[in-house]
Amino acid sequence: MINSLLAAVLTGSMLTAPLKTALLTPDDLGAEFVRGDYRTDILRNSVFDQDRKCGAAVRKVSTVYRTRVATALKYGDRWEGVTEYIVRGTAREISALERAARAMARHCRTITVKTDASQEIVRALPTDRLGDGTYGIKYRAGLSGSRLENDARMRGMMVAVDVVFVRVKNTVIVLEHNGNVGEFGPALTRSATRAAVSRLRQAL
User: 96-131: b or e for each residue (b if 16 or more CB lie within 10 Å)?
Assistant: First the structure.
């Protein structure tokens, strides 16, 4: 059911002018940022399949990758950036997508995959209460002995990605903030999300 609903969302009004003007720009994030030519897609990572319910929810949310209403902003020469996806649909369609995001936040918060050399974790991401619904998770990968949940130090961290889903009426923002090899500022997730919601409200 949800796949057919999301197909309708993603082939509908996704290229309308208001949604384009709602996209983040480098000015929203700081002088260091420039437009990039890439898109992140962490929700396609197989780590989420470690939990059946988490994997099912993530597959539904990841349908936002099909939309062309997206922007990628890169932090200068650093290996860090923000990718934003925006989709719009009917109340029924967006509610289905939000239910998937809520399930993602609920079930993708205790995943740990560890080998002798490395580890991956997925945890809940605390978020501000923005829009009509806000949900977040964070993905971290690094050395097996590193404390990946302690973002303040980033010791042993190799990859960090925050994912935030925000519903504003019948429109959805999915924001991915990613960084590699220690080039990741956790506070940027919050400021970028707030800026994205503000832009969307103005556009709508």
Answer: bbbebbbbbbebbbebeeeeeeebbbbbebebeebb
Per DSSP, 40 falls in state -
Q: Which residues contact residue 174 at a Cβ distance below 8 angstroms, ignoring those fewer than 6 apart?
A: 61, 64, 84, 85, 86, 163, 164, 165
* Ranges of the chain whose pLDDT falls below 50: 5, 8, 11-15
Q: How far is CA 19 from CA 68, 131, 146, 185, in A?
A: 11, 16, 40, 27
| Cβ–Cβ < 8 Å for 130, 195 | no
Among 86, 104, 68, 97, residue whose Cα is nearest residue 23 = 86
Cα–Cα distance for residue pair 131/125, rounded to 1 Å: 17
CA distance to 94, 179, 192, per residue, from 156 (Å): 38, 13, 25
Rounded Cα distance, 183 and 185, in Å:
7
Residues 150-170: tens digit of each pLDDT: 765 566 678 999 999 999 999
- Amino acid 8: pLDDT: 45
Whole-angstrom distance, CA of residue 150 vs CA of residue 60: 29
Contacts of 81 (CB under 8 A, 6+ apart): 36, 38, 40, 72, 73, 74, 75, 177, 178, 179
Task: Find out whether 118 and 142 touch, Cβ atoms under 8 Å.
Answer: yes
- Sign of the Cα torsion 192, 193, 195, 199 reads positive
